[in-house]
């Protein structure tokens, strides 16, 4: 077990050394956001509740903003959400995503566009929603 811990720490260090931004540390996975649930099924006009776990990759507390990116005709409440997240920690943002009142969608993609402090990281997570 000690050898596995040592090798894991070495791999994490090498991964960080290869990253282009030395002040940014999203951890071994390298993503600043994750949407849960990843897959959802709903009916036309019925909302889907999504939680977005966000990571502050900096050493000090920062405002973390997520703007949901949706297919045309879809709505989100709130469309943009912000929380203060301590350094190198995570926080949770909650959204209600509403598909249009008509139409069938198979694995429609929604995404979380991430900004931490004044640095925009772009779309860091996606989820799939099927409307039947």
Distance between the termini: 48 Å
Helices, by number, come to: 1
Strand order of the largest sheet: 2-9-8-4-6
Mean pLDDT: 91
% residues in beta strands: over 45%
Poorly predicted runs are none
The chain-level structural class is mainly beta
Shape: elongated
Radius of gyration: 17 Å
Largest sheet composition = 5 strands, mixed
Q: In sequence order, what are the helices and strands, one letter per element?
A: HEEEEEEEEE
Determine the fraction of residues in helical runs and give it as a percent range. Answer: 10-25%
Total E-strand runs: 9
Question: Would you write up a description of this structure?
Answer:
The protein is mainly β and 132 residues long. Strands 2-9-8-4-6 form a five-stranded mixed β-sheet, with no helix packed on it. It contains one helix and nine strands; from the N terminus they run αβββββββββ. The mean pLDDT is 91.
């Amino acid at each position: 077990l000690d050898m596995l811990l040592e090798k894991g720490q070495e791999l994490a260090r090498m991964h960080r050394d290869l990253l282009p931004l030395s002040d940014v540390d999203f951890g071994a996975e390298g993503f600043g956001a994750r949407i849960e649930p990843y897959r959802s099924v709903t009916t036309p006009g019925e909302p889907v509740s999504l939680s977005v776990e966000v990571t502050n990759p900096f050493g000090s507390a920062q405002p973390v903003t997520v703007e949901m990116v949706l297919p045309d005709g879809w709505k989100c409440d709130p469309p943009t959400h912000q929380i203060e997240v301590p350094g190198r920690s995570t926080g949770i943002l909650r959204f209600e995503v509403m598909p249009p009142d008509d139409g069938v969608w198979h694995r429609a993609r929604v995404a979380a566009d991430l900004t931490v402090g004044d640095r925009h990281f772009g779309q860091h997570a996606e989820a799939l929603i099927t409307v039947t």
